[in-house]
Predict the structure.
Amino acid sequence: MRLELKDIKKSFGDKEILHGITFEVESGRAMGFLGRNGAGKTTTIRCLMDVFKPDSGHFVLDGRPFRARDHRIGYLPEERGLYAKEELVHQLVYFAQLRGMEKAAAKQSAKYWLSRVDLSEFENKRLEILSKGNQQKVQIIQALIHDPDIIILDEPFSGLDPVNSQVLKDIVREKVAQNKLVIFCSHQMGYVEEFCDDIALIDQGTIILEGDLSQIKRRHGRGKYRLISSIPETELATLGAHVLSHERNGTVIELCEGLTKDAFLRRLLDHGSDIQIFAEYQPSLTQVFIHEVGEKNGGDHE
């Protein structure tokens, strides 16, 4: 499947919130839809889900107009929407039936997912007795219980500890491997970087960067290298390198114009330096975002 968002605009009153959102998502490739809080992620998704009507623009799935009600969609909203005083299994079955499942199949799926996220012991307990993290896991289950073809997760890591975050990442990878269409919305870029194939970065209602994540990182790191060696930093300039920054996994350098990496490496070796790492540098997704936001706003962030 291929889902396209084409020039989506949305205003509330006189204020335009989305300024022509355009990007695409393919099944079998996890898409990270990223931006700071208030950037327009949730508004975009609500337009896609037909919660809000866009003022203009189109949603297209495999070349045809997309209407959410015509497809099996698993949607995890950022806000919790479950019933605090209802037993877990009962309300999960209820939500599954709303999505077209027969009661017996819904109950079987609910029990499977509760077991999958280590909540079987609470299946007959009320939601309100669970911790914030466990309540979030129940929210995630309601989005997946009916085996949707399109999965939209809005800030799914909210309240999850590292162990349960890993469980969620494993589930997302599994769904991607099943050729599901997965959109993952978040401002927590470190999580997304671990498993997303493609990204779309939104800032103040505008897409500022989108495409293959690995290619984007290579492009932003072009001409930069990561170095860990015994040579004092003050001597790097004499060998033809400018120090750009310091990171936990090495010093980031840029070579003087006309100096190739092979020539620089020979200079290091001739200098007698003990070289642990000399490799092409790839910035983190957070660094890419900060750089792009800085450029968009006329700054000089790196």
In short: The mean pLDDT is 90. The two ends are 36 Å apart (CA to CA). The longest strand covers residues 15-26. Residues 162-177 form the longest helix (16 residues).
